[in-house]
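hey can u check if this looks right to u? its 294 residues, i copy pasted from the old doc so theres a chance i mangled smth
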Amino acid sequence: MGRDRLLILLAFFTTYFVWGATYLANYWAIDSIPVFGMGATRFTVAGLLLYGYTVLRGDRTLPRPRYLINSGIIGVLLLSVGTGAVVWAQQYIPTSTTSLIISFEPLVVMLMMWVVLDSRPSVKAFVGAFISICGMALLIAQPIAVGGPEATKGFIGIVSGMLCWGAGMLLRQRLDLGPNRVRATAMQMIVAGLFLGLFSLSLDEWDGWSVAQLTARSAYSWLFLVVFGSIAAFTAFNFLLGKVSADKVSTNTYVNPVVAVLLGGLFNGEVITGQSLLAGALLLAGVYFINSAK
């Protein structure tokens, strides 16, 4: 097996399983760390480490203001709100259900492209949308899958995150982030972390918090999110974009929810019903039709 082929397989494994595991890792991390403060420290540390890596690799020039601003906009949309709101929602909705709802994202992007860019979807995409909507209706019809009485807050958080993630994906293709893709990713994380940090301080999240409250499980989960969920997975994602077609890279959309559901059931005591499995199958089938539509 050639070196490139081995790296591609390793990168696919990382985006498939690490990103699928981040749902549970986020849930465990916020168990004893303030929600938005956790995201702030996670992205800031990961971004600084990734930026330092680019410096060690020889890129010592300061980024142009345009690159920094554009990367900051994408970072706030994708990470501060897109990821931050979803992590906040996991206080109210089980990780497995959250991951299945997030698999709905391609439909959100398709509708945004239709409304904003006047890019009318094909008939196949409409079929996929219908199948996905049926799957979503089947999923949220179960009280056991939705969560407690405050589940509405979680849904609002997830929908907000999905809309901002979709907007960030559309803008990312149109904004100049500079020639160094790794540095652009680092700047996105740093700006996103600073934004979340200011938001966390405005909410007084750290008021009364002490290191003594930090559990080992939260600490290890945070470390996993920094090293693997942020640095390794995003680096693997960017590597794949330069090596294989985008439709192949996007196949993580089908695997991440499966990993998240299995981990939630095995390690977090979440009940996986037959109806949830059927709903997940319909959601992922709909996503397949949307992603494969011309």
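The chain has a mean pLDDT of 89.
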